[in-house]
Amino acid sequence: MKAYVAGPLFDEGERWWIETVERLVAAAGFETFLPHRDNPPKDEFNVRQIFENDKRGIDECDVVVANLNGITTDDGTAWELGYAYATGKYLIGMHTDWRVRFPDEVVNLMIECSLNQMVRSLDELQLALAEFSRRS
Q1: What is the largest CA-CA distance in the chain?
Q2: What is the pLDDT of residues 70-124, one digit of tens each?
Q3: What is the DSSP string of 42-60?
Q4: What is the C-alpha to C-alpha distance for residues 99 and 49, in angstroms, rounded to an integer?
Q5: What does DSSP assign to residue 88?
Q6: Architecture of domain 2-135
Q7: Domain range summary for the chain, segments of one domain joined by +
Q8: Model pTM greater than 0.85?
Q9: Cβ pair 1, 63 in contact under 8 A
Q10: In the Cβ-directed half-sphere of 69, how many Cα atoms lie within 13 Å?
C-alpha cells in the first residue's frame, strides 16, 4: 500500500516533523511519497513538474496522512487534502497542536469534515494506520 505524507515544509522544524511522521508510516508497512524528498529542488523552471509529481503521488496512493498543525492549515496541504478527498482517498489528519481556532472544531470545518480520521499523536497515527491496513 502507498501513503502520501502531506504537510508544510518551510523550516527545519516542519521538515523534521514530517520526516518523523514519514518514518512511522513507512515502518507501518507503507511505501511513502514525501513531496520534498520525491521531487527535485524547486526552481523557476520546474514548478509545473513538481505539481504534476505531487498530483500523481496522490493519484497513486491509498491513504493520505496530513500534518494539520498550526493556527491554520498550510494552503498546499489543504489543496492536497481537497484533491485527495475528491478522488476518494482515505484521509488521516494529524493535529498535535494544542491551539484551537474554534471551540467546537480542531481545524477548519471543510478540512475536518473531509477526514476519515483525526489523530492527535504519533501513537494514535500508528493505530490508525494499522486499522486502515486491516480494513484494506
Answers
A1: 43
A2: 888 999 999 999 999 999 999 999 999 988 778 888 899 999 999 999 999 999 9
A3: P-TTSHHHHHHHHHHHHHH
A4: 35
A5: T
A6: 3-Layer(aba) Sandwich (3.40)
A7: 2-135
A8: yes
A9: yes
A10: 16
